[in-house]
Write a structure and sequence with these properties.
Layout lengths: L18 E8 L6 E8 L4 E12 L4 E3 L5 E5 L3 H12 L6 H16 L4 H19 L2 E2 L3 E2 L10 H12 L11 H21 L10 H8 L5 H11 E2 L6 E2 L5 H17 L3 H12 L11 H17 L7 E4 L2 E4 H5 L7 E6 L2 E12 L10 E5 L14 E7 L8 E6 L4 E5 L2 E3 L1 E5 L5 E8 L7 E9 L6 E2 L4 E3 L1
Antiparallel strand pairs: 1-2, 3-13, 4-12, 5-13, 6-7, 8-9, 10-11, 10-12, 14-15, 15-20, 16-19, 16-21, 17-18, 17-20, 21-22, 21-23
Helix pairs in contact: 1-2, 1-10, 2-3, 2-4, 2-10, 3-5, 4-5, 6-7, 6-8, 7-8, 8-9, 8-10
């Protein structure tokens, strides 16, 4: 835009399209200048920097082709901590997700390096267990949400498994409140298990059962047979024999890899592990809490196996060196070849999400409505509206809506004007979101809505760009 003079403080508004913008200011009396650069993205189109974790065995190599950066990691600790933190910080809170947060925080507590980290983990656990207490329904299992009687037996069973894994009450020095909360979590899990006819025994009915038993050194032969029945191990890219949705496949591969590593089959286990860890997202976890918990099991076994050490030898950018020397290399790494041992590498890549890819995959109705529930075609500054998003074909467990608002609308949350957010349908077919018209509309503006499922990555739909005037 053209330069202008104004007194300060001042708020300047102007319309922009997507692109990179630089705002520069100059003090007319002193001549001092300052500037700021901002990127305006396209509605419903996002770019992220994801840090993929890869494990390279002897005679394996990697070349930085389409990535941003490549580096050697001294250990798996940072990736494991990121995975735990990202899972414990998950913002949506059905019964399974809450239990997943508790389980991640349980491991955060056990691996904490200081008291502050332990306190943070304890607060997550206490809050999570208190929330689960609002979801347990006697004789039925866990409801998906508090104050709700919608039960998904499938996800309630996940909550049972996670809560059974909690072991902090075995540590004498933990606080009385934490020990009591963990005991209550076990009690709730036992109660829900009775409703689902779940038992802790030596029967292997799922890959989760296999992992539970392999940790205590049982049923190795049966576990190997189960893995062979589920997974095609013959091809370069390992896959399930019966194709499933992405979260299920990642979870199965992660638990199978954890089992193989625990049983000493490192080469095959690492081959499976790579297909999981190379899908870590920008937050350091996988798509959902279900596959993220499976990844936690995998990373636990990888760390326990102690396969990453300083003695590995490799060739970096054509120069031979030890792994510890490679960690400190100042130059940009373009290629890594492992000569001996196992090396952990981190590849940073750009990931893109485009809601246009999900256009009308299933019906989603979106409208702006006034206090009389009438549809609104034209908005007036200062007025309150509701953004109504409904699912004509009905809710599926895990559905949530992502919203990217235009300049003239905002969701007022915590005193701030929120433009980009996600909300859970919480077992309902319709969501009504209160909005405020924050400015007059001189021209038509656009906003975007996308419904995605937190457990089934492929379930996504968007009505395309929507207009407000």
């Amino acid at each position: 835009i053209d330069s202008l003079s104004t007194n300060t403080p001042a708020i300047l508004e102007f319309y922009v399209s997507s692109g990179t913008y630089v705002a520069s200011v100059e003090d007319s009396s002193s001549g001092e200048t300052d500037s700021i650069e901002r990127v305006v993205g396209e509605l419903g189109k996002f770019k992220y920097y994801a840090k993929e974790l890869g494990l390279l065995l002897k005679d394996e190599s990697i070349i930085l082709a389409d990535g941003i950066s490549l580096r050697i990691l001294p250990s798996l600790d940072s990736s494991f901590e990121n995975l735990l933190t990202a899972t414990a910080d998950y913002t949506h809170l059905c019964c399974e997700q809450t239990a997943a947060k508790i389980l991640a925080a349980n491991l955060m507590y056990l691996t904490a390096k200081n008291e502050e980290q332990r306190q943070t983990a304890e607060q997550i656990i206490l809050a999570g267990i208190a929330r689960e207490q609002r979801m347990i329904l006697p004789g039925q299992g866990f409801a998906m949400y508090p104050d709700n009687d919608y039960i998904s037996e499938y996800y309630s069973k996940f909550a049972v498994r996670y809560l059974w894994e909690l072991n902090l009450d075995e540590i004498p020095e933990i606080s009385k409140s934490l020990a009591q909360a963990v005991r209550e979590a076990h009690s709730m899990a036992d109660e829900a298990a009775k409703a689902h006819k779940m038992r802790l025994n030596d029967k292997i009915q799922s890959i989760e059962d296999a992992y539970r038993l392999v940790k205590i050194g049982k049923k190795y032969q049966q576990i190997r047979q189960l893995i062979k029945s589920l997974i095609d191990l013959s091809s370069q890219k390992i896959s399930l024999k019966q194709p499933q949705h992405a979260v299920y496949e990642r979870s199965t591969l992660a638990y199978a890899a954890a089992c193989l590593i625990a049983m000493g089959d490192l080469r095959q286990g690492i081959k499976l592990a790579n297909q999981v860890t190379r899908q870590f997202n920008e937050q350091g976890r996988l798509y959902s809490t279900v596959d993220s918990v499976a990844a936690i099991a995998l990373m636990t076994q990888l760390r326990k196996a102690g396969i990453i050490n300083d003695t590995a030898r490799l060739r970096v950018n054509g120069e031979e060196m030890t792994a510890i020397e490679a960690v400190e290399i100042p130059d940009k790494i373009k290629s890594i070849e492992v000569l001996d041992g196992v090396v952990a590498v981190e590849v940073t890549r750009v990931q893109e999400e485009n809601w246009d890819d999900f256009t009308q995959q299933f019906p989603v109705d979106v409208s702006l409505r006034n206090s009389k529930n009438q549809k609104v075609e034209h908005v007036v500054a200062g007025k309150r509206l509701e953004l109504v998003v409904s699912l004509p074909n009905g809710y599926q467990a895990g559905d949530l809506v992502h919203v990217a608002l235009p300049a003239c609308l905002a969701w007022i949350q915590g005193g701030g004007k929120v433009k980009l957010f996600s909300l859970d349908f919480k077992a309902k077919d319709e969501l009504r979101i209160p909005l405020l018209v924050t400015s007059q509309v001189e021209e038509q503006q656009h906003f975007a809505v996308c419904v995605r499922n937190m457990f089934e990555e492929e379930r996504a739909s968007s009505p395309g760009l929507l207009t407000v005037g």
